[in-house]
Design a protein that fits this description.
alpha+beta; 2 helices; 6 strands; 12% helix
């Protein structure tokens, strides 16, 4: 994913429940407290917990990680989407806005 994102500057929301100390005031999303932060390249290293929500200010790329325990839901402009979809290291499934996703079996 780092290859597709490149040097795109991302903001993120991190769940307060993981014990990180918020540097900014928290916001509530679906009844949970999160704090905004800049996403740094090290946040995407193997073994790290990725932030639950991330986006770039130009709205070219965004993800949400709370829908399924082992997946990211990604929205991206076409060049970034194609790079992610064609990367053999990633398992991808295309979803359209009108698709109904099944409930998570891992919850």
């Amino acid at each position: 994913m780092r290859d597709a994102i490149g040097n795109l500057g991302l903001r993120c929301l991190r769940w307060v429940g993981y014990g990180e100390v918020p540097a900014e005031p928290t916001v509530r999303v679906h009844g949970e407290d999160y704090f905004p932060a800049d996403l740094v390249r090290g946040d995407l290293e193997a073994g790290r917990r990725v932030p639950e929500l991330a986006w770039d200010v130009e709205t070219r790329f965004a993800w949400g990680a709370r829908l399924y325990p082992d997946s990211l839901i990604v929205a991206a402009e076409l060049p970034i989407y194609r790079q992610l979809h064609n990367d053999p290291r990633l398992d991808t499934v295309s979803v359209r806005p009108d698709d109904v996703l099944p409930g998570s079996a891992g919850d």
